[in-house]
Amino acid sequence: MLLELKNIFKWVNSGGNRVFLLKDINLQVEEGAFISIMGLSGSGKSTMLNVLGMLDTFDEGEYLFNEQPVHQLKEKHRSRLFKENMGFVFQAYHLIDELTVYENIETPLLYKKIKSSERKALVSDMLDRFNIVGKKDLFPAQLSGGQQQLVGVARALVSKPKLLLADEPTGNLNSKQGEEIMELFKQLNQEGVTIVQVTHSEKNAAYGSQIIELLDGRVISR
Amino acid sequence: MIKNYFKIALRNLWKDKTFTGLNILGLTVAFTVAILLSIYALFELSYDRFHKNVDSIYHIYASEQTPDGPGVSTAKPIPFADALQREVPGVEKITKYMGGNVLITHGNKELRMEAAYVDPDFFSIFSFPVIKGNKQHLIEDQSSIVITEKTAKILFGEENALGRTVNILQQGQQRPYTISSILEDIPAQSTMRFNLALNFKNQSDFVYADNIGNWEKSNHSVYLKLSEGVVPTQFEKATRDFTALHYKDDIKDFKRDGIQPDKNGQYIQQRLLGYKDIHFATEKNGNADTSRLYPFLILGIAFLVLFIASANFINMSIAKSAGRLREIGMRKTLGASKAQLFFQFWGESVLIYFMSALIGIVLANLLLGQFQTIFRTSAAFGNVISPSIVIAFFIGVMVITLISGGYPSLLMTKLSTIQSLKGKLEVTGKNRLRDGLLILQFGITILLISGTLVLWDQLEYMRNKDVGFNKEQVIAFPLNGKREDAQAIQLMRNELADTPGIVNITASNNILGLGKDGTSSTSAMGFDYKGRGVKTNILIVDHDYTETLDLEIIKGRSFSRDFKSDSLGLIINQAMADQLQEKDPLQTQIILFDSINYSVLGVVKDFNFQGFDKSIEPLTLFLNPKWNMRNVYVKVSGNNPLQSMSRIEQAWAKIEPNAEFLGSFLDENIDRTLTRERLMTTMIGSGSILAVILSCVGLFAMSLLVVTQRRKEIGIRKVVGASVSTITLLLTKEFLKLVLIAFLIATPIAWWFTSQWLQGYVYRIDLSVLTFLLAGGIVLVIAIATISTKTIGAATQNPVKSLRTE
Are residues B750 and B779 in the same domain? Predict the structure, then answer.
């Protein structure tokens, strides 16, 4: 078992009323799984993904990652856990505009304090693998959306995470580019990377081995 | 990692050229000015510090009680120094000191130079190191002379000066002296300046030889070095018996005249002024008052200028940070810690600051020459720089960047990841910091501008004040040649007799204002009149003095060539007449110099014969054309005074071919006495211009940002029917409110400061509310002009454009 959510609740107080963003979420993610989270806008998909990615907190419940209770960890340990195990892919790519393709991919390694020679090797691997060696000195603004997302995925994978979290990774792409990214995800999953993705599209969701549907912060089908 | 930070910092700065440019421009200008001002202030503060013993060297002066309150006297009689060292314990070394101008000749070179007549101990008290020749026992023998390296160069060029003989004109004779030692050039920060030093015993007989053992005549200063462990105040107390013994006649007279002693029962109290304070000392109520306010004020301005530029930096950084939130969020999800992010953003400000500081240093170096000319200083990097100053500068810059770069960085890194990824800045406290900083900036600006205006007013007031004599049409110049004074004057009269434009010629022993040669002097005396002690300043004049200077005789007559007996006549001023307390001053007979009977011929209206910020003291004019006159006065007619000036110069060149002509109009002489005020006005004035420019750069940047941030709001308002003027007003109002608040805060402070400053002047302007309103008005107009360039543009834009982007 890679991670487990037990009875997670998250709410905000709005004018004296408690509005639930997540309501009694239970989820188990096995190593090697490929889970798609679906739902309407505002159903809590992204919030759930952020909770999984330790970017957001919750108000009640338990979160176990590798048998460790995340909600009880200190900020420092939590961020180490995060750094070592997770990669994030965003709908809007979120590349750093001022850095080149190469430097964008390198950044997570810098924060993990990996030595320069090893960094070079890891980044080169990624560039090879995604066929973007020729683009390594370009800035994000000089790439197409699909290429940017490719860099985004490469950056998420460069530190060899156990879990890849993707928030509508194809949302800003055309159908052909989207398909390519999804094929890539499928291939990665076959290589052993655990993936949790949030998506609107049934077609993309079907790439996953399990689909979870949310409505108003509640799991309605799985 | 560092490389990565550095790279992204440079790329970021490059991307935002407007803001980077504004920031670097503002900071560079601020650094340049702050560095120049600091050099100046540090230079002033380091005055006389080069003397190794500076902490134990003192100038001894006396506080004397007079009918007008306590006064200061620095002149000492010849036996004073020796007696003090003998009779009062605690004096390690002591020296007499008297400066003077001498004519030195060597071969066919003939030069006027500053001489210091001192005792041999002088060179072990003060640190004027010998570079060549005898290092100990300087000027112990009376035929030797010590000169500075610069003087040696002037006299002998590259030749060896040591052991050579020069002649000095003393008491009408050329006396030979052998150069025994050569001193290092006197540092720029020395209060004492001289070209050559001689044994005090070489002074003219009427100064030294005639007065050995005479306590009645005071004519020189005395400096001493206290033994280790002696406390100055204790020493001052210990001199009381000494004073009572040696000044008993004076004290008896004081008692007779009913003068009140000071609170310790003393009529004359010897006091010590630390030599390190001498550059900053002024007289106040019979005491030397030390104030380093001026250099600290300058440092303060330097600091304020830097503050304004830094406030701009903080405001721009915070405002711009909104655009970088995504980057921050992204870096956090990639595993960056808060500390790493903080150092990244702080590093960017360090980069900007050090870049600006470096350019600032270079610019300051380039501008130093002009700065020195404008502010008449020899301050330079060379004479203030020291390892501790360099380290202090470095730490100072780091601290400033830590505050101004660190705060925005902290704000940015504090936000949660999700928040920053969404790219929305949570607005809390509604820009309170920004508003506060803008208010402070404009407050400082208004403070400096109103300070400048008040200073300027006062300066103009003093320049244009009626000083009681004709300052526009009178040229004065010193008698700096070899000829005897009376002869030189007579030759001058003959030479200019029929020259058109020359109205009158006269001479006196003192100058009015400060002459082109930079000297001024006063003579004073005291005598008993009808059983009372009377003090008066004295002026020895030639014929035509009152006519040349257009002094107004209000009673009696002026000196006249028609009366031989006028050499025993006096002209007094109103202040003197008041002091004599006679119903008819013209009936007054005064017995002076033991038995000579002088009678008052006339009373002249008070005129400012001394400083122009002093009240007018009693003055007595003596007629003695054969006296040692130092200055010639020539009155010229109103048309073409400059031509008259050159005619006088030609005439002087004919009479004294080797002497430089140092003539100037008396109003220039008055201006010269106001140097300090003018410098201060220029400094604060340039500070305030800079403050205005920098504050406006900040304001411009802020309006630019507000306009972009509120683009959508402006668009919506226009769609629902707002007019261009209401939108402009809406955007401008916010900033004008800040300027108004700044005005309300700054004005009382400015008022308080300037009125305190004006207290130091006897003749001063009345503070007017208008001056302060003017300062506020200037700032307001400039602020409106700055903001409206952006706001009007935003208000006139087509709303469809701004709404489409959403």
Answer: yes
